[in-house]
Specification:
acyltransferase, transferase, Aminopeptidase, alpha+beta, GNAT family N-acetyltransferase, acyltransferase activity, transferring groups other than amino-acyl groups, Bact_Acetyltransf
């Protein structure tokens, strides 16, 4: 397994995010009407197995101190193998290298596996923020990153 940086316009990233959005619409009963629009300011990481991207996640800077983890997704066939946990750690490392002292994220109340992952990795629930404030299905989390010695 390899974790590598990919541009937002990478075809495999686009395919993974499209699959993520489709799954979200199915999981929330069609309530999530979001459409993926690539942002140049999101840095994506892809998990590659046997030459194929099987998972992705992005990091977007909110401000100098805070990065937001976006679009975490693991193809169903690769779930339960620790892929998401390793990807999350790599995104946290990327945020740290970019100078962030905090990372935050949003997920849906209808995604208990995601909530379990984030809480088991040290994320604390925070009030919903930004574009998620009006979404009754949003739940947000944050984690303070270690300080460089």
């Amino acid at each position: 397994m390899l974790i590598e940086s990919r541009p937002a316009i990478d075809p495999e990233i686009a395919a993974l995010v499209t699959a993520q959005q489709r799954e979200l619409r199915e999981a929330d009963g069609g309530l999530d009407g979001q459409v993926f629009v690539p942002h140049d300011d999101v840095r994506y990481l892809a998990v590659v197995v046997n030459g194929r991207a099987v998972a992705c996640g992005g990091l977007q800077s909110i401000d100098a101190a805070t990065g937001e983890i976006k679009r975490m997704y693991v193809r169903p066939a690769y779930r339960g193998r620790g892929v998401a946990r390793q990807l999350l750690a790599a995104l946290e490392e990327l945020a740290f290298r970019q100078g962030h002292s905090m990372v935050c994220l949003e997920t849906g109340t209808y995604l208990p596996a995601a909530i379990g992952l984030y809480t088991s990795c040290g994320y604390d629930r925070i009030p919903v923020y930004g574009e998620y404030v009006d979404n009754p299905y949003s739940v947000c989390f944050a984690k303070r990153l270690p300080v460089a010695a």
